[in-house]
Amino acid sequence: MYTAVEFALIARRHMHLYGTTPEQLATVAATIRNNGSDHPGAVYYGRGPFTVEDILASRIVADPFHLLDCSTTSEGGAAVILTTAERAADLPVVPVRILGGGSDALGPFYQHPPRWDLTGSREAGIPNGYVGRRAAQHAFRTGGLTPADVDVCEFYDPFSFEIIRQFEAFGFCTEGEGGPFVMDGRIGPGGQYPITTDGGTMSFGHSGVPQHLQRVIRAVHQLQGRCDTNQVKDAEVALCSNGGAGALFTHVLLLGKELA
Amino acid sequence: MMLEPQRAGIPVPAVTPFTRPFWDAAKEGRLLYQFFPASGRAQFNPAPIDRVSLSEEFEWRQSAGRGAVYSHSTVWRPQTPAFRTPYAAAIVELEEGYHMISNIVGCDPGDVHVGLRVIVQFERIGDEFVLPYFTPEEDR
Fold this sequence. Notes:
The complex is a heterodimer.
Chain A: H1 3-18, H2 22-37, H3 52-57, E1 60-62, E2 65-66, H4 85-88, E3 97-105, H5 133-143, E4 152-154, H6 160-169, H7 178-181, H8 200-203, H9 210-224, E5 237-244, E6 249-256
Parallel strand pairs in A: 4-5
Antiparallel strand pairs in A: 1-2, 3-6, 5-6
Helix pairs in contact in A: 2-6
Chain B: H1 20-27, E1 32-36, E2 41-43, E3 59-62, E4 66-75, E5 87-94, E6 99-104, E7 117-125, E8 129-136
Antiparallel strand pairs in B: 1-2, 1-3, 4-5, 4-7, 5-6, 7-8
């Protein structure tokens, strides 16, 4: 067992329950890798573009994941400056506000097998497969917003399926609908929910802990209109996420230019 | 292609006071799990308390070793070169009502699917360990 297998066991269960396809997973991978291919700061800048067929033609690592369904590894650092709205008013940047956030976890990481349907003793009855739902609900409630208000989805992308899982867990689509949901350009540049617009861990870089903040940094740049690549026009609200252990924990942060 | 057990040289389990009865029984070809009367739960991996009732009172029970594949992934690129590939990692749902991670052996990788009926098959790995694998039940 290792990370790819942990996430594969969650993905396989979803494919069994809902008929999610390798092509749908590959669409996620191709979209994010192409976002990084365009980004001069990405480790994999200039690699690509990738088609869905390219992803599916790469060698199997742990099925259903091909090599190009998996994140890369790299070095790197990241930092975010937090301050008050009053201080930010004097700074020469567009301030971005934290509208909400939350952390959700289920069980000891990398010890128990990740089981999609496991609910344990949780009162909420939300299964392992949807870890992060409580965090997202809390974030949206705090911010007075809904998934439909989100302009940019800076989601954690350790493996392609994780994006499909998060769209369902966070309430962007119904349970089981995540596979079809990522098709037809919805998650690409110019789509309804552009994802992981710098290339994420698949292409920009996976520097371990700093990549958690990289999702926040990219979301801030999107809301400030500072992105040189894949700038989402008039972005007002962004949702960032992170997590791990084959979906045993997920954190979310809801950012916006204005309070709702 | 036939999925086979690993050979000596792979990383071996770190035995703890709570898992030693499990590993000792495996050497005798018996698959053990914890049963907690307070909650009526079967639990695996072995732990000092029931994860639901927090009861510390448990008994070791012997599983029939029969179950079904709950989820699986055939691995072609292992974490370390010590593992021979492919191997089919799987979560097996035992008839006694608990899940455990193991590997499926004795069939083609393409034959492994969710719901496949499997039965435990003990394999000696080096001098110290006997590991519980699972194999399709119809082949037995």
